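Q: Structure tokens for this one, please.
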Amino acid sequence: MQAAEILNAERERLPLWLPVFIGIGAGVYYALPQEPLLWASVLSLAILAVLLLLLAGKPVLRAVVLCLFVTLLGFSAAALQAQNRKTPMLEKRVGPAMVSGTVAEADTLPENKGWRIILSDVALEKRPPEKTPEKVRLQIYKKAFDGDILPGMRISVLAIVNPPPLPVMPGAFNFRRQMYFDGLGGTGYALGPVTLEQAAGKNGWSLFWEKLRSSVRRDIAAAFPENTVTASLVSALLAGERDGISKETWENIRAAGLSHLLAISGLHIGLVAGLLFFALRAVLALSERLTLYWPIKKISAAFALCGSIVYLCLVGAPVSAQRAVMMTGVVLLAVMLDRTGLTMRLAALAAAGILLLTPHALLNAGFQMSFAAVVCLIAFYEALSEKWKSWYRQASVMHRSALYFFGTILTTVIASLATAPFSLFHFHRVAGLVSLFANLLAVPLTAFLVMPAGIAALILMPLGLHYWPLQLTGIGVDMIYEISRDIGEGGNALIYAPSWSLSALLLIVAGGLWLCLWQSRLRLCGFALIAAGIFLAVYTAPRLQPDIYISGRGDLAGLRLEDGRLALSSLRREKFTAGQWQRHAGLRQPQPVWPEEGEAGEDLQCDWLRCRWQKHGKLIIIVRNPLAFLMLCDAESAPPDILIAPQDAVPHVCRAETVIDRFDLWRSGSHTVFVKDGDVRVKTVAQQGGIRLWSPEHFVRENDKNRKSSTAKIR
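A: Here is the predicted structure, written as tokens:
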């Protein structure tokens, strides 16, 4: 009876939990070690639907069955989307070979050095069509083509195309899975000049928007010929192209906590809709006849909705913008229907729609951070709305200005706290307290100068009158960048953290949702869940740091020294992988490299044949030259506990408790080794990736072999 009373008291808030259970179902699907049977989940859905009808008079049991039904609905949506994709992916490197295809997307590289393009309808030299990816991504430098590469062109080029990359270490971001859902089967770079086989056509709706986006980017670049930084930032805001932003610029913006201003989301969509709504309404109100006889408020709302959708398509429809357009659209529809929009329900509706239509968005950090910020802000201002309105009505002009700046600070603090766990989990760093000051200056600049002038420039581009509005946009963008550079230069404003447990993140998310979605005192239990999540994160972080890292290619290895630093085998090879290892370890400073001769740490000794390292009483040998096997495999020499040969095959006569060689790396990808209390544990990308639709074929064969071997041992 008590449970029924709680459900009745929170009845209006119960629908808000539906997208949460959809997300749980989708998350379970992506976490499975192997592909489930779709028909089984559909059959279970049908059974649960019948149970819902039979339990009409039992509210508590019906609520439990409904939660299971919605969870299974999210699971089935994720499974159906994955099986419908069927993205063909390369299994090994192809090339140098001629690659031809139609340009589907063309983004400018930083400092206008070339293009990063996506080719569709791909043809690969000497490769049958059934084994050819439908889409590949190529990097082409400026000197390879005279002119601009535009969407719709049919081109051919000599290139090397690699398979989609695997995670750089077990537990790291799965690029291959992301590319599977993006429809990309390979990635590579051009080696020679680009040949234009056919000029850009005019067919295709998505191609139309890509061409329009390219046209906007070219107009922006022409408006700032001497300032590529300004052009790249304006392009990010007005055309959704962030690839042109240099690494240094990104680092400064992230360090100052201003990266959300370049991620098209609720702020931008709200500003676009609001500017269009109030501008058209002000123009229509100039006519007395229109004001008296036409519903100018509804007409303005319809115009703002259409403008928001156009802007969404222009910037490439990122998930955060989709959510914002859904919510803004419902609000504007409510205006047209003389209804009041319910904001938290709008967020729930937007989340449910995105998770059912594109379930893999759940894995995207942008989706997680966007909804975390929105839900927390709505919950906070729901609790304060009446008081805030009262303060605003009674305030003078000066006090209203103070309320605006206070509101900006509050919004920044809440959004920062809401997104901090996701930023620390995915990127292992978060902006510090100085970001409050940066946002206090940058958000008003964006709202009152950058976006109004930018929208005016977009509207005037067909007439060729966009130059001066773009210059105003550039002035605002330059001011924002100067703020970010002054605050974020050098990365000193960032707080770094090592990788931590997914279970801890889920506890924090559960606590946040419990706190935001309920309205009774029951919500206070959310603080206990958040505290438990923080404790688990702090407790598990040191235990999740490997002692040995080995890349999948075998060109790079790393050792975690006693002082916490990560000693690398090379500073020149696999720089991206080294950077990711450094992030996962929560390190900021450049790491030491193994010497050719001498000592790099208390127990690390290297020469040209091998490196010798002691860790918790275990002897680890890393082979640098195959001649080392003459000594290591000698029957009279003491065997090491761990023998690693990233570039070589270890002879069978070599003895060691744990052996990792180049064939192990080829079969199972990157390895990490944990040496704790005399115990040695090895994790591989193949083990954690499982047998999924996006897994490489040799991973599937390896997992099958391991599963059969385990079954045989049990028998």
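A few notes: The first helix runs from residue 2 to 9. The two ends are 50 Å apart (CA to CA).
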